[in-house]
Write a structure and sequence with these properties.
The protein has 177 residues and is of the alpha+beta class. It contains 7 helices and 6 strands, in the order ββαββααβααααβ. It is 45% helix and 16% strand. Strands 3-4-5-1-2-6 form a 6-stranded antiparallel sheet. Helix 2 runs antiparallel to helix 3 and helix 2 packs across helix 5.
């Protein structure tokens, strides 16, 4: 089984009794919670009940602000990849999909990723929301402002891992209308 991180959009948040209506699929990424997912879940980040699993391992965030942060970082990364047609196509595919699937919130489902260790999945998601995502956001903000060139160079060197996730209207876990 490929352990994946899943990213969705919705106009309301999941709660203990129900999942939102009209969930839109954004992206899935094998083996990790990639930088792109962390940044999109990086504004107004809060732990919510999962739409897929029983433990509270969902993370919600503001869609517009998270998408803007990702777009700004893609622009900064692109300044060093001007001749890379594959990167340019990735940016177009990503931003077009984000515009199409726009909603009020992002909902990040990292249950498969945090369950790969023997630890408590809920605690791992709380750590992701309170430490890892804020660290990624701080690094991205500094890089966008021109104050984190080494980090930006490392992201640029491995941009496929950070940004080239599977963006689609249908993910492994999709929700009927």
């Amino acid at each position: 089984m490929a352990n994946r991180s899943y990213l969705y959009s919705a106009d309301s948040l999941p709660n203990e009794t129900e999942i939102p209506k009209g969930i839109r699929c954004i992206s899935e990424h094998n083996g990790d919670v990639p930088l792109a997912h962390q940044l999109m879940a990086g504004r107004g980040t809060t732990v919510v009940p999962s739409m897929i699993w029983n433990p509270p391992v969902g993370i919600a965030a503001d869609y517009a602000d998270g998408a803007a942060l990702l777009r700004d970082l893609l622009h900064a990364v692109g300044k060093g990849l001007e001749g890379d047609a594959e990167f340019a196509e990735c940016v177009v595919r990503t931003t077009t999909h984000l515009e199409k699937q726009q909603a009020k919130y992002f909902v990040l489902e990292a249950g498969e990723i945090v369950s790969m260790t023997d630890g408590d999945p809920a605690a791992a998601v709380r750590r992701l929301a309170s430490e890892d995502i804020p660290d990624a956001v701080a690094n991205a903000e500094a890089a966008i402002a021109g104050r984190n060139d080494d980090w930006l160079a490392s992201v640029r060197a491995d941009w496929q891992w950070h940004f080239a996730s599977f963006y689609s209207e249908t993910l492994y876990f999709s929700f009927p209308d």
